[in-house]
């Protein structure tokens, strides 16, 4: 009788454990489903945000071009907008800032060439661009690379972020972008006034961004 009772007890324990296991598996399955659902929603939200920034970048570009009364081929506009979006996303620089620098530097002329030899939308000197290309792991193909909006905007934005990190001051970094970090350091060491005219132009264009 005692053996029979022990057997029943053992069976009951097994059944209880089995039922508990089923409930646990269901719960784990349910939690996994919830986790998957949450992750899917997060991905969708992230995609929506990216689409919103991409669309906003395009709108901003059109506003800048309209204000400057410029008309560019649609393919060029699309290329510039896409390049600005990618650089903004990669280097965490607002698209308005990139647009303000481009407007100040080249007025959106892809083939712009300064008297000093700076090339392209963000007016980068070839010697500086070659160093940047090496840091970014890009194959340097010469001046022609700077006439490619995608490469020019990426290198220019990357260079600006380097200067911001170096000087820890946006206004000074913009001055260094125009005059060169070496010149700005010399003036700062000599405790002379920094040339801020370029900075004011960029910030003025930024202020009027829609």
Draw up the topology in text.
Layout: H1 2-67, H2 74-91, H3 95-105, H4 126-136, H5 149-167, H6 170-179, H7 181-189, H8 197-207
Helix pairs in contact: 1-2, 1-3, 2-5, 3-8, 4-5, 5-6, 6-7, 6-8
Characteristics:
210 residues, mainly alpha, 8 helices
Describe the structure.
The relative contact order is 0.09. The chain has helices at 2-67, 74-91, 95-105, 126-136, 149-167, 170-179, 181-189, 197-207. It contains 8 helices and no strands.
Give a concise summary:
74% of the residues lie in helices and 0% in strands. With 210 residues, the chain is mainly α.
Uncertain regions: pLDDT < 50 for 5+ in a row?
Answer: none
Global geometry: globular
End-to-end Cα distance:
89 Å
**Series of H and E elements:** HHHHHHHH
Please identify the structural class as seen in this structure: mainly alpha
Taking the sheet with the most strands, its summary is: none
Number of helices: 8
């Amino acid at each position: 009788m005692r053996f029979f009772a022990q057997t029943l007890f053992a069976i009951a324990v097994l059944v209880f454990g089995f039922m508990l296991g089923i409930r646990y598996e269901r719960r784990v399955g349910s939690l996994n489903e919830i986790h998957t659902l949450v992750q899917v929603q997060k991905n969708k939200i992230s995609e929506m945000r990216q689409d919103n920034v991409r669309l906003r970048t395009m709108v901003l570009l059109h506003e800048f071009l309209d204000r400057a009364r410029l008309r560019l081929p649609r393919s060029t506009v699309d290329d510039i907008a896409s390049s600005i979006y990618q650089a903004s996303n990669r280097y965490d620089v607002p698209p308005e800032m990139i647009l303000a620098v481009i407007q100040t530097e080249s007025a959106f002329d892809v083939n712009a060439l300064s008297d000093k030899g700076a090339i392209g939308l963000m007016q980068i000197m070839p010697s500086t661009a070659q160093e940047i290309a090496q840091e970014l792991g890009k194959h340097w193909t010469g001046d022609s690379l700077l006439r490619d909006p995608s490469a020019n905007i990426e290198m220019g934005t990357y260079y600006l972020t380097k200067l911001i990190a170096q000087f820890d001051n946006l206004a000074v970094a913009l001055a260094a972008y125009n005059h060169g970090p070496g010149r700005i350091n010399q003036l700062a060491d000599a405790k002379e006034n920094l040339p801020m005219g370029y900075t004011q132009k960029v910030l003025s264009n930024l202020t009027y961004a829609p």
